[in-house]
Amino acid sequence: MTNIQFPVYSISISGCLSWQLHALNNEGNEGNQSLTRRYYIIQKGMNEPESVNGVSGDMLKHVQAEHLHRVAIQDELALSEGGKQFHPDRIGYDLEKGLPIFTDADTDLATKTNQVIQRCTMSDLEGFMVTVKGGQTLKRESVIEFGAVVGLPTLVKTQSYFHAKYGTDNPTPYNVQVSSGLYATVLNIEAFRIGYNPHTFNYSIDITERKKRLDALLKSVLYTYLQPNGAKRNTNLPHPDHFEGVITVSTRRCPAPMISSLETSYIRQIHSLADTLNNLNGADTVLCFDFNNIAQFAEQIETLIERAQPWESDNAEAIE
């Protein structure tokens, strides 16, 4: 593959993931029985909905944010005090503690958003919402979006296993639900929004800093699939044994196509969509990076880090 660089407007991942013997996402307990998260899947040709095991997008987003935090610390990216502490309010923590974030000149949403983007990588990429002095709501939508990871009908199985917790008194019996199978996963990254201030229609940080944040975000996505943190990992560490799919990248104002692996022909359809979008918008509008296993997925992320460049435009983006 050539090392030609390209601007990145958006990135999508559509994949089929295999996790064996995991209990990553539970909804609680009923008596001594843990309850795994379930989703209803309704597909063409089904006579009735099917309940399948899954992991919420909220959990994957939290895992990704954890990895991003570690990368940002290591790479010495700009972080607010809340960002450094991995506080859920991020820049909101600094404001609540009365830390010097805004000057007397920062009176409107445009200048305040500018300060937040410059000061905090976590707030820029992961989003936040906080009410500031004067009743203004300062918010930012997340640059990265996750769908729930859902089991492919007939290709995922959940079973309850008996355990006993031993202590100084009598052992406590309990049951844990453990799942294995193939799962559909999707995510989208609005890469053009990294460092973008929608109130001023320009970027609050320079292209060098935006490149660092884009690379950190891509690393965090890779680490999310390499180490999917969640429940019961001390004794039910998942066996990740397969991951295949397509990473799509759009280099112009065009969505990077994404189709769930719940559709068996998703890879072929994604390539067909890429061809159509390239015909409509020009060659190389959409680039496809296929992977057939976990190692190839890592290689494709490495390729993106080497070749992908931050989006540049003097024209307004219709967002938020």
From TrEMBL:
Spell out the Pfam families in the cross-references.
Answer: DevR
Q: Which UniProt keywords apply?
A: Antiviral defense
Presence of the UniProt keyword Transmembrane helix in the record: no
Which InterPro entries does this one have?
CRISPR-assoc_Cas7/Cst2/DevR, CRISPR-Cas7/Cst2/DevR
One annotated GO biological process: defense response to virus
Function of the protein: CRISPR (clustered regularly interspaced short palindromic repeat) is an adaptive immune system that provides protection against mobile genetic elements (viruses, transposable elements and conjugative plasmids). CRISPR clusters contain spacers, sequences complementary to antecedent mobile elements, and target invading nucleic acids. CRISPR clusters are transcribed and processed into CRISPR RNA (crRNA).
NCBIfam families cross-referenced by the UniProt entry? cas_MJ0381
Q: What is this protein called?
A: DevR family CRISPR-associated autoregulator
Q: Which organism is it from?
A: Mojavia pulchra JT2-VF2
Its taxonomic placement starts with: Bacteria, Bacillati, Cyanobacteriota, Cyanophyceae, Nostocales
